[in-house]
Amino acid sequence: MKKKICILGLGYIGLPTSAMFASHGHEVIGVDINNHVIDALNRGEIIIEEPYLDILVQAAVTSGNLRAYKEPKKADVFIIAVPTPLTKDLKADLAYVEKATETILPYLENGNIVVLESTSPTGTTKELIAPILEKSGLKIGEELFIGYSPERVLPGQILMELVNNNRIIGGINRKSAEMIRDVYKTFVKGEMYLTTATTAEMCKMMENTFRDVNIALANELAKICEEIGINAWEVRELANKHPRVDIHKPGPGVGGHCLAVDPWFIVDKAPEFAKIIKLSRVTNNSMPNHVFNRVEEILKDVQEEKKVTILGITYKPNIDDIRESPIIELIELLEERQYKISIVDPYINEFKYLQEDIKKAVRNSDLLVLAVNHDEFRAINFREIYKEMRSKIVLDTRNFFDESSIKKEGFSYHLLGKKSRQYSKSIENAMKEIAAAK
Q1: The CATH number of the domain where 44 resides is what?
Q2: Is the pTM higher than 0.85?
Q3: What is the tens place of the pLDDT at every residue in 70-84?
Q4: Residue positions annotated with a catalytic role
Q5: Half-sphere exposure of 403 (CA within 13 A, CB side)
């Protein structure tokens, strides 16, 4: 049955969700406070990078099923997909959620459905959304049906995963959950599991926290292996041969609006118990500084003004999203120490130090840092850039490049998670002496 759906927030989740509902025959009213977003959408254009989203949006707008506005309008379903950023004291800033909820009050009618999609701390639907919506005079759970249903999508695969991934539907009561499920059934092919809104909120946070904790374990392994002089990537590969072991990949830090943010919501709710979660956040937040220290160590003998070229600044490969990117912090650390900086990122159009031509970017550089493993960087011709660089050194934070190929071109190669230690060589020499004695 065709419905009128009002979606508040036309960002990385709200826009694809709007286009998906519109492409399945619903009349969708997209709402955003950004005039640039509204104008672009009404022209059938998008301002974010996501495979096939431009095609879906253009078709939805052309059909008349999708329009963007500055203010909400009457609808059957209201979906809130606005940001929930961190405050300076690492708590959830729910101002956007609160404002969006208050904004729809004048438009609510008996039988309406309100769904929160924004990643939010446990209790947000029940303790924040519901009391605001009660001001409408409608009885929650009987005349107005509300709940929480988080997305589970990967940037670069959002449209496919919106359709195929399983979905949790958390209602303020069972009737609300069932009605919300019927709305998403329009396009969701994955299983849908009904629960309470508060349980669904915790599920969303724990899904991201699980990954953050496991990445922290990998990053801790990388630091340990550097300390004792072995290769963390080899340890990971061999350990993962065990049928019940799956160590994640280390890297220069964790970014994005989910993994770098959501665990703090849990810590804030139960700080006396969330010890591992908090330590994992601290560990992952330490990685930009750890990479910076590796840079300092590698270039300690360079006397002239030091120049570093950074490959990639997004928070993960093959997307244009720099939200919470750890590479931004690395750049700030380099700036504080007066390093000259150049940046290459094929997914970013505007950023300080950005260069399109890698040969120009690396000119007179002392170090090339692979920070984000964009597929495009596979095509780098190290033979060509060799003559452009002052010091021929590469630091790979993702185990992305082939070490032997780079060394063959005359570069010195350094890897996050692997560092030669003097005493490890002493141990090796001792073992040789023992073998010789036998």
Answers
A1: 3.40.50.720
A2: yes
A3: 999 999 999 999 999
A4: 204, 258
A5: 13
